[in-house]
């Protein structure tokens, strides 16, 4: 009898010891605790894996020539197509990149960019993925104008105040050289900061989504110029100091430490 009592007391003592040490006396809870810990470790491992540990190259391609780009008309978000020269430039880009590794091709929704991207994508048997945030700077009511036709005070505000947005609206086509792509169409105007926010955010996201790859992104001159201000730590109002010809390639490399550098080639 005494032996049974001692065994009973010993069992109670062991149970109390386990409870106060923070360990459950129930095997089912051991399993639950271990599973939760395993899940936390798995989530942490997955989070770590999502961080890119390799450089990612992004080739920013400006679309080929259009009838407007050849004479200096502000295209903005008017859907001006490639001309014959621009189509030839797109094919030349496809040939020049055909021997390189390309993992993805992205494009602005505007046809001059999309058709340039399609030529490159065809050479690599890849689809073109359209991203709206890669569109050109919105110049609002001045879409289709020559720079010299924009009021001087607007030009000064635009080039000195990054928060000054071009007025939105339907362009007055009275004195335009070619009103065919803007007549009766409402265009949004943007500030340089607005453009920088949407385009740089889009580009950095695409780099993250294609970790370690070579990504071709066909976009517009203004977008590439503003991207270069971001890479070089310059105010967006300095974007015009960068020259970006049609059908040119600007190579950025996104590094694992989150820095971005411009490469001479890829």
Largest sheet: 6 strands, mixed
Overall mean pLDDT: 86
Structural class: alpha/beta
Number of strands: 6
| SSE order, one letter for each helix or strand | HHEHEHEHHEHEE
Q: Care to describe what's here?
A:
This protein has 266 residues and is an alpha/beta fold. The protein folds into two domains: 2-49, no CATH class; 56-263, Rossmann fold (3-Layer(aba) Sandwich), CATH 3.40.50.1240. It has helices at residues 2-20, 27-49, 84-97, 111-123, 152-160, 192-209, 221-231; strands at residues 56-62, 104-107, 128-130, 214-219, 249-254, 260-263. The protein has a six-stranded mixed beta sheet. 40% of the residues lie in helices and 11% in strands. The chain starts with a helix and ends with a strand. Strand 5 (249-254) and strand 6 (260-263) form a beta hairpin. The longest helix is centred in the first third of the chain and has 23 residues, at 27-49.
Keywords:
266 residues; alpha/beta; Rossmann fold; 6-stranded mixed beta sheet; 40% helix; disordered N terminus
Strand and helix layout:
Layout: H1 2-20, H2 27-49, E1 56-62, H3 84-97, E2 104-107, H4 111-123, E3 128-130, H5 152-160, H6 192-209, E4 214-219, H7 221-231, E5 249-254, E6 260-263
Helix pairs in contact: 3-4, 6-7
